[in-house]
Specification:
heterodimer, A: alpha/beta, 13 helices, B: alpha+beta, N-terminal domain of TfIIb, 5-stranded mixed β-sheet, Rnh202_N (chain B), Ribonuclease H2 subunit B (chain B), RNase_H2_suB (chain B), RNase_H2_suB_wHTH (chain B)
Chain lengths: 308, 306
């Protein structure tokens, strides 16, 4: 697993993949999808697929791949070596979504939520396998959101392929377990070797699990909060943990798509509140109501000043 | 989510991002810096900010590009005020003109340094130091020279000729820079297939007149409009809403109904219809302080508070 390209630019989404085994191009294959790092406020989310010929399912089972959550880090590393070593019939591919990608997707003007991002990433990986000639017949997915809806969506996108979306799929199907191990190992390695693009000096590596509930993570976030810029790119800004801290410790920043209280926003935009039509008309106290700045200036947002 | 962020008012800050001509900030003498001055804006009659270059040689107006949700990153600092100030050259005659007009009402020739006095804006006398000021007075005033002293008297006739030239020059500049002068809104990203050369000259004249009017009083602006022989526009807001569409026909108009029957003595009002129980109970409701539904839609209520 070569993480070099991601580590030189850790702000983007990047794909890592094994060689496609030749048998996968000729024989009917099954494919498992799983993700690692959905919940943490720190670090990337990694999506993984693993695929092998349906006839080789038992061999994969024999590798004793199991749900990544039940294993220690060392066991996972060990299992990944086994999966990667079985390159004659097992292939894998990963999509690393950097925390920055997650932040910018979720916080952009047209909101792109984590579920949609997850679904699209999974779809992208399946498409990658198909584009490389993998003869897919079965897909097994650990669910994101309601399982039947997700299953429906995937079945429609990939007609002719049998899609099974199931919660806990990573403990039910070995091919999903294998995908989950690949994803988890990649995430662990990335988080460990994170290159901070910000000039932070020696960064304290004690950020705990990265999950919002972890007091170590919270303390770390607080320590690296810059009042103007917020957090390093390692942090998912879109997490409410990060946002709450920014709201209380950071400088207030206003964006033009901020939601504001109706009355105030209307006033700011020079709209008339509905209520104003119902209140008693007050004497207009405008200084010079007749003077209207020429549209040359108003269109260009140019104003005269009376003081600096 | 953070929906209730309070927007504090902009505080005074001590730095600005300014775009200025070299001639505005050029200082040969270190003790003679360009200065910001508050002067009477000829159009609004209120204070506006201007800049005088070193030795008061040149006048500049100060305009701010001011749009919400902007801030600057300047070097290693953040500046909350996201405005961009423009310091652009301006003809000082525009600022001198209101004073000349005021004293011109007395009808006398006066030395211009006595005319340019303002309690509220004492800096206005500095306008006379501008290199253009004295030489350009002849465009708007009659001159008399007695014993090496110059006297001036405002002339509306000359001023109109001068302003007309300004309008013409503005038209040239507008055309050169492809500025859209037609009615209606045009998106900057919208590419027109047809070239805009078919715009009426009147559109350009009216637009240029509007621009010049930003620098002269309202009275002068109206006079200039007449001088340019442009009909005054009535804004659609003030105009009455169009009444119901009338059918066009050549036939003589006849009353559709015979109203004279109401005048006759034997006309009796129909007795009021009997009300249902629900209507009766509604009629008993205390209506004090309530407006009728129709009052919300009639034009009288338009005077809402701003």
């Amino acid at each position: 697993m070569d993480l070099g390209s991601f580590q030189t630019n850790s702000s983007v989404s990047c794909r890592l993949a094994s060689q496609i085994p030749d048998v996968c191009r000729t024989e009917d294959c099954c494919l498992g999808i799983d993700e690692a790092g959905r919940g943490p406020v720190l670090g990337p989310m990694v999506y993984g697929i693993c695929f092998c010929p349906i006839s080789m399912k038992e061999e994969l089972k024999a590798l004793k791949v199991a749900d990544s959550k039940t294993l220690t880090e060392a066991e996972r590393e060990n299992l990944f070596e086994k999966v990667d070593g079985a390159s004659s019939y097992v292939g894998w591919a990963l999509q690393v979504l950097s925390p920055n990608t997650i932040s910018t997707s979720m916080l952009q003007r047209t909101k792109y939520n984590l579920n949609a991002l997850s679904h699209d990433t999974a779809i992208g990986l399946v498409q990658y396998a198909l584009d490389n000639g993998v003869q897919l017949k079965e897909i097994f997915v650990d669910t994101v959101g309601p399982a039947d809806k997700y299953e429906d969506k995937l079945s429609k996108l990939f007609p002719g392929i049998d899609v099974t979306v199931r919660p806990k799929a990573d403990s039910l199907f070995p091919v999903v377990s294998a995908a989950s191990i690949c994803a988890k190992v990649a995430r662990d390695r990335i988080v460990k070797g994170w290159n901070f693009s910000e000039d932070l000096g020696d960064v304290n590596p004690e950020y705990g699990s990265g999950y919002p509930g972890d007091p170590k993570t919270k303390a770390w976030l607080l320590k690296y909060l810059d009042p103007v810029f917020g957090f390093p790119q390692f942090v998912r800004f879109s997490w409410s943990t990060a946002q709450t801290l920014l709201d209380s410790k950071g400088v207030t920043v206003h964006w033009d798509d901020d939601e504001e209280d109706g009355e105030k926003a209307a006033q700011r935009q020079n709209n008339k509140s509905m209520l104003s039509y119902f209140s008693a008309p007050a004497g207009g106290n405008n200084q010079n109501p007749t003077h209207q700045t020429h549209r040359f200036f108003t269109e260009r947002r140019l104003k005269s000043l009376d003081t600096l | 989510m953070s929906t209730k962020k309070k927007r504090a008012p902009h505080l005074n800050n001590d730095s600005w991002v300014v775009v200025a001509a070299d001639s505005a900030i050029d200082t040969q003498k270190p003790d003679n810096d360009p200065t910001f001055v508050r002067l009477r804006n000829p159009s609004t009659d209120a204070a506006s900010l201007y800049m005088l270059s070193a030795g008061d040689a040149q006048l500049f107006e100060v305009k701010a590009f001011d749009e919400e949700f902007h801030s600057w990153f300047v070097g290693q600092t953040v500046q909350r005020d996201g405005r961009l100030l423009f310091v652009t050259p301006m003809d000082p005659l525009y600022l001198i003109l209101p004073y000349l007009i005021k004293s011109g009402k007395e009808g006398k020739f006066q030395p211009v340094d006595q005319v340019l006095m303002d309690e509220d804006f004492p800096a206005c006398s500095r306008l006379l130091s501008c290199t253009r000021s004295l030489s350009s007075l002849r465009h708007v005033a009659e001159e008399k020279e007695v014993a090496n002293m110059k006297f001036h008297r405002y002339s509306e006739e000359k001023t109109m000729v001068w302003l007309e030239k300004k309008v013409e020059r503005t038209v040239t500049a507008l055309k050169k820079r492809n500025i859209y002068v037609g009615e209606g809104v045009k998106s900057t990203t919208y590419v027109r297939v047809k070239s805009e050369s078919d715009h009426q000259q009147e559109d350009y004249l009216r637009y240029a007149h509007g621009l010049i009017s930003e620098y002269i009083s309202e009275d002068l602006s109206k006079a200039l409009l007449r001088h340019l022989q442009l009909p005054e526009l009535t804004s659609p807001k003030e105009a009455e809403p169009p009444s119901k569409k009338r059918k066009l026909s050549d036939k003589p108009v006849e009353a559709g109904e015979d109203y004279t029957k109401f005048n006759s003595a034997d006309f009796a009002r129909k007795p009021a219809k009997k009300m249902s129980a629900a209507q009766k109970s509604l009629a008993k409701v205390d209506k004090t302080g309530m407006k009728t539904m129709s009052s919300f839609f009639s034009p009288k209520v338009k005077t809402e508070k701003k």
